[in-house]
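Support request, please re-run this one:
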Amino acid sequence: MGFNMRERLRAAGHEVIGYDRNQEVSDVASIADLAGGLTGPRIVWIMVPHGEPTKQTIEALAEVLSAGDLVIEGGNSKFTEDQANAALLAEHGVKYVDVGVSGGVWGATNGYGLMAGGDTADIERAMPIFDALRPEGPREEGFAHAGPVGAGHYAKMVHNGIEYGLMQAYAEGFELLAASDVVTDVPATIKAWSRGTVVRSWLLDLLVRAMDDDPELQKLRGYVSDSGEGRWTVEESVRHAVPTPVMTAALYARFASRQDDSPAMKAVAALRNQFGGHAVETNEG
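Re-run finished. Output below.
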């Protein structure tokens, strides 16, 4: 995803230097070389797995960046980690913005939905980057300054909780149709929902795409992992006493998928692979 974002930024005329531990896709050999290759004040966008990899990257950047530089954390970090990241960089005079990013493997072409958290001045400074990454059209339909540091990742967390619920609803519909002794063409039925119906959506289009290749999703195991955001959403709903039965049930369904092979979870696995390039487990080994 970070590679695709780099290419989209370059296509928009931005100078981009990328560092990756995989030297085959990296422009420089180290984080220090990345910092040295940019003219200050610098903007550095982090796109690595959340948790320890992000923490280590923040610590490494703190040692090579200068006062006035800006770090944008675009991974799926938990919002509670943003304050610590910002505080560490602030000791060196480096600014911090967190951005929830949605768009998966399709974002390179379609653009990315962006939810940012941070000071207004820092958001405005990075706006040319955000404008290059977001979809074409009105800015407010693809970008939001959600609030202070942490708000971007909080917004993305809730976004992903909703995503869990939507995928689960489509998946359960798929399983019910497949179980019916009345409906004889499940893929055609679902494809017919693509236009004019109230349940049409990009996720539905991706499910149709998956079934075009594998009508009964027989190539997939009904095993679906979760990357954290769904759990955090449910935890927040408990903390605020906000009922989220759909999101919670969708998360629990993923847990259940790891115990038995489920037709519904095959559909969820197919959707995650289609929109985000997430790995799937197949019956073909």
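DSSP finds 13 helices and five strands in the chain. The CA atoms of residues 233 and 239 lie 10 Å apart.
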